[in-house]
Write a structure and sequence with these properties.
single chain; 271 residues; alpha+beta; YojJ-like (1; 11 strands
């Protein structure tokens, strides 16, 4: 249904709806990338696209052709230049609660073993970094370390993070009830401090992997024995030993159960 005309352009209700969706997407993309170098490139791309539309509207054929060529090349350039942002965006989509409901995790039996090992390591002030996969696997990072494929076990974790062990320097990746690999190399977060606290390599690695993948990262500080947990790019420090089990259960099991309950209630029409 035609609403009005702008010169030779016919504007319908569908057109307005289409413009609203595109505006919404562009706005949230800008908010997502604001404060990064990618945001400046994104603004430049939007300006070029706007000039291209204007050139077509006033029938500047040569200018329109040149700008169309630029926008065509920007499709490839967009993927190359925005690779980290695209990967992070897709990771955020994968961490959505609705998506998580369809991803099977079975770490209930592992929580006790991991929590016990973490408490013991904290008492001894032995540094540790344990990554628990909550969504898709971390095959790329697992392959950077020593593949173990062993059942999660407190004694094994203590042995790995013993300072004299050749495997202690790096991260352990746990998927379901299996320790996939040890001595894994992880991406470091760009965050180097939280308040007045300067983050070490382990804490930055925990933040980095939680920013890029759907994981829970448990860190034990070698200097202070402090226990921290990183999730969705947020680091929670100073977790007391007696709270480790509850924290892991809340983040790995309870949140999943709540999501399923919300969906079931919605299907049954409950408020």
């Amino acid at each position: 249904m035609e609403l009005f005309r702008l010169g030779f352009l016919t504007v319908t209700l569908i057109d307005l709806f289409d413009i609203a969706i595109v505006s919404f997407l562009f706005y949230h993309l800008y908010i997502f990338m604001r404060g990064t170098i990618a945001a400046q490139i994104f603004v430049g791309l939007v300006v070029i696209m706007a000039f291209s539309l204007l050139a077509q509207a006033v029938n500047l054929k040569a200018m329109g052709w040149m700008l169309r060529m630029l926008t065509d090349m920007w499709v490839v350039a967009f993927i190359i230049l925005f690779q980290p942002e695209i990967r992070r965006l897709l990771s955020i989509v994968a961490r959505n609660r609705v998506v998580r409901m369809f991803v099977r995790i079975d770490v209930g039996e592992s929580i006790e073993e991991i929590a016990s090992a973490v408490v013991d390591l904290a008492k001894k002030k032995q540094g540790a970094l344990i990554i628990i996969v909550r969504g898709t696997g971390l095959k790329t990072y697992s392959e950077s370390g020593i593949v173990l494929m062993a059942n999660v076990n407190r004694a094994l974790l203590l042995s790995i993070f013993n300072p004299k062990s050749p495997l202690h320097d790096g991260a352990v990746i746990v998927n379901d009830r299996i320790i996939e690999a040890a001595r894994c190399t992880l991406p470091l977060s760009a965050v180097t401090r939280i308040g007045d606290i300067v983050l070490g390599t382990r804490h930055r690695a925990a933040l980095g992997v939680s920013e890029q993948a759907d994981t829970i990262a448990v860190v034990v500080s070698e200097e202070t024995g402090t226990i921290s947990i990183a999730e969705d790019g947020i680091l929670t420090r100073g977790i007391r030993p007696q709270e480790v089990r509850k924290e892991l259960r809340d983040r790995l099991i309870v949140s999943m159960e709540r999501s399923w309950k919300n969906v079931k209630d919605a299907i049954k029409g409950r408020p």
